[in-house]
Structures are given as structure tokens and as C-alpha cells.
Amino acid sequence: MSDGLRIRLDRTLCDGFGICAKHAPGYFSLDDWGYASLIGDGTVAEKDRDAVMRALFDCPVHAIVYMGEHRPSGDGAAHPDVQESPEPDPKNNGSEAISEFVR
């Protein structure tokens, strides 16, 4: 069972559309020029998950970054459940572009 999700805001990507503050005003505020700031430490309560995820998906410049889920541990502290994505495994189906793929 998760204890909530974690997000962060990359302010260098923000273009000031303000969609995040529209969907999740408890997590995003806008400055005088319309650029977003994250309210709090990025921990999102389960009850606010849908609104924050809508803000994340609707951000036109992808400035909101999904950092993973919190899972409660025996010591009472929340530890993020972070896993690296596996490397893609390109398959060669006779495609010249894939056959020349170099890592």
C-alpha cells in the first residue's frame, strides 16, 4: 500500500501556463509572472493524487516530474520506491536502422 506519491517541479522548464495551479492549487502556486512553484516537499496525499496527476499530465512542457511512490516502512519513515528503468532491448526485424544501432 502506498503512502502517497512524490513529485518535483523543474522550474527551468516552466513556461508559465498555470495549468498545474488550476488543477492542484494546494501543490502549485504562481508568481507574479505566472511561473509555478511547488508548495511543500513534493509529497502528495492519496486524496490529492488525481488532481496532481492531472496537473502532471496536462503540463505542456513536462515541468512536473513523477518521482515515485512512498511506502511506509517498519521504522515509521517513508522510503521512496525508486527503481531504474530497464535498458531498451532493440529487436532486429530486418530493419536497417535498428541493425546499425550502436550503444
TrEMBL record:
One of its GO terms (molecular function) is metal ion binding. Its cofactor is [3Fe-4S] cluster. Residues 70-103 are annotated as: Disordered. Signal peptide: none annotated. InterPro entries: Fe-S_cluster_ET. Keywords: 3Fe-4S, Electron transport, Iron, Iron-sulfur, Metal-binding, Transport. This is Ferredoxin. It comes from Mycobacterium gallinarum.
